């Protein structure tokens, strides 16, 4: 395949790369042009998103650069979610960061670079491409975490993220080198062929290390320790970004590695995934109970949700992968929405608030915001008729279909523990006496995006089930 | 005009839903009127539904089937059992709104919205014909009820709301897994199809237990009933009415719709468990009710005892028992709702539920005392009231299966008379020992309008139960026919031609005649 054809297949990434470089130049000369750069970055994301939608509709599955990177329905599905989350993170950020005195034109550039990295992650079909995408995303993310440089917590978050992220990358690289050593290839399909039947100890070590490294990236227990600290320290729009787009990318990457590279030896990784899933559900639920800071609470909630998503992977079937993709889409809407709601918690003096004490009795002083918040909490808890329930349902349906009944029963029973702390948020907002800390919102962008997300996870979201089911089934089929 | 010409069930679901959204944005007075109007409109539609329902027609009527939500089919349809329970819901809702007319002064719009949402969900539970749709309606009821208890409840409302939510959620999630397994195995979520699907006997046991976990909590059965007294005591009056009146019936409806016809063998195997728990519940909760000082708690425990008679009746596997259980459900829905309203009437005046703070109310509140007396008698099961019909039928059915269970369950009626009459004596009779209670005015027009329709319905059901038995008879027969193959043998089978019992045997007319003729010779 010639270079032109290859470049044509990766045109979304090409568009984003050029846009990022142009914006980088712009920001070098006009660092105060953060808003303009953000708008241009959103336009770039929409443009390349249009190409992704186009190739998703025309169903052109192909690999580029001699099998280093693929363009298939699975990657395209994940890319739509990633670009969407990145665009929302760009739209909600400028006002917030300006108030913190941290808005600079590098913000959209870094988000774009992270988006390119994630794009590469989800379409990688080779360990080397995988690693390049992962690092491109991670390096941008480390900087983003400490973007509010004069804020001690933000700097701490960035440093923590960097040190632990580097450790995880090391683990991942070590696993990859073992896999390469024992299978003789870095290509997923070639590893898949070699990992068939006679699996030696070295290969198992490789698989375990790769899975551990990736579990770190999706913040699944027991590799979740960084999540609450980083989520709490990073500026809230950045946290919203971390909780949505990179989660989708890393999960999609994990799915592809597990299904394409290790798919023939389900027995090797299934137990690992089951243990990680259940640990994430339980630690995510129990850890959140004592939290006073809402951002930390949402961090544990994301750990909890990753656990549910991994149940679909434990099933190891096409249905399971499709279920994970449905859950991811709903999860992006829920988590972005919750963080947007969180960003509207601004006190009368203009400072941003993020603890339980500040939202006491919010339903009396800010009824609409409290209602939206409550919708997200019930949805995250998976209570019908909110749309979060549908994500849990398809995942458990896949587990039941794969005959993993004990996993399904334990997992769904543990979701009741999680319901406790989501209820606590609702309780504080609705049942407690109002403290009147939070000022009326003056940010239309936040109100509208939050409202749209709330509508998406409300029962109206059920109308999207047929579309979501068709797209996710098509995406999952691309892997099998 | 026949109601089947319209998607009547969808309309009945939509009216409260739309009104709920409107109430959120309305001012207090508008919200009250709007909620009352919407619930009355639904009551009218419900009556039309009942009139249009043909007891001899197809098993499932007013069927709707739209593929709106992919795998979740918007499938609605009712049989006679669903019809009766929907009627109960739409009948109690305007009364609930009326009961909250003055008692609720804060956040009226949200309150009315929560109740209207509740009505939609209740009708949905009884009308859903898709397993997942049923689950969504069944579970979604937790949210409005959590808010009703938590926002407008009493002093311990937060504990009660958490307990209610988490208890029932834990029960239900396991049922969801069982439902997913059934959908997977049977290849459909259509309830009428599943009703005639024979699941493997060894799987039935697990499925039955999973459903039992949910319905037993909802019912509630001893020993998972402890959320109920807390929730009842803390909920506002109308919340208690709807909780006792309709939400508890979802458990019984679940047993009837799912556990029995879908898992007949497992149901038969677990009869000792159900009867055992019910027997304990009848005696234990009745005794607990006897020593309560809190009126609402007393009625809450009496609910658990009455529901135990329902479970005994349901698991008799015969027509009489199941019909009786349904009538007890309907009767208890009306009577306990009315009793909670009676408590609400005096609570609104004195703001205490403590029995000792009242006394001698028949002197200063004669109309109230009369109505309260009537509902007390209905709760006891006096002939002529609805309570008698249901309890008699279900115990008669139970007698065919287990004499012991019947014996113990019947003590519940005696104990019931004990605690209810004791309650009534302490509140209405005796001397007026508290000056503030003695100064309370009698019930006004609004309160009479709340209680009188229930009294009329209770009397109707007691005097002419055929109106209520007619629509359900054929559907109960369908269930009995379905589960017949697993029906338990009764423990009181008489030996044929046993000389020691011959003189007690009831002879047929022909037999009697022959004997008489024989003696003449």
UniProtKB/TrEMBL annotation, chain A:
Its main location: membrane. Residues 124-418 form the NADH:quinone oxidoreductase/Mrp antiporter transmembrane domain. It is found in: Cell membrane; Endomembrane system; Membrane. The chain crosses the membrane at residues 6-29, 36-54, 74-93, 105-124, 130-150, 162-183, 203-226, 238-259, 271-290, 297-315, 321-343, 368-390, 396-423, 444-465. One of its GO terms (cellular component) is plasma membrane. It comes from the Bacteria. It catalyses: a quinone + NADH + 5 H(+)(in) = a quinol + NAD(+) + 4 H(+)(out). It holds the Pfam family Proton_antipo_M. Its EC number is 7.1.1.-. Keywords: Cell membrane, Membrane, NAD, Oxidoreductase, Quinone, Translocase, Transmembrane, Transmembrane helix, Transport, Ubiquinone. GO terms for biological process: ATP synthesis coupled electron transport. It is a multi-pass membrane protein. GO terms for molecular function: NADH dehydrogenase (quinone) (non-electrogenic) activity; NADH dehydrogenase (ubiquinone) activity; quinone binding. NDH-1 shuttles electrons from NADH, via FMN and iron-sulfur (Fe-S) centers, to quinones in the respiratory chain. The immediate electron acceptor for the enzyme in this species is believed to be ubiquinone. Couples the redox reaction to proton translocation (for every two electrons transferred, four hydrogen ions are translocated across the cytoplasmic membrane), and thus conserves the redox energy in a proton gradient. NDH-1 is composed of 14 different subunits. Subunits NuoA, H, J, K, L, M, N constitute the membrane sector of the complex. PANTHER family: NADH DEHYDROGENASE. Belongs to the complex I subunit 2 family. This is NADH-quinone oxidoreductase subunit N. It comes from Sphingorhabdus profundilacus. The gene is nuoN.
Automatic annotation (TrEMBL), chain B:
Residues 128-413 form the NADH:quinone oxidoreductase/Mrp antiporter transmembrane domain. Residues 490-521 are annotated as: Disordered. It is found in: Endomembrane system; Membrane. One of its GO terms (biological process) is electron transport coupled proton transport. Residues 63-122 form the NADH:ubiquinone oxidoreductase chain 4 N-terminal domain. Signal peptide: none annotated. This is NADH-quinone oxidoreductase subunit M.
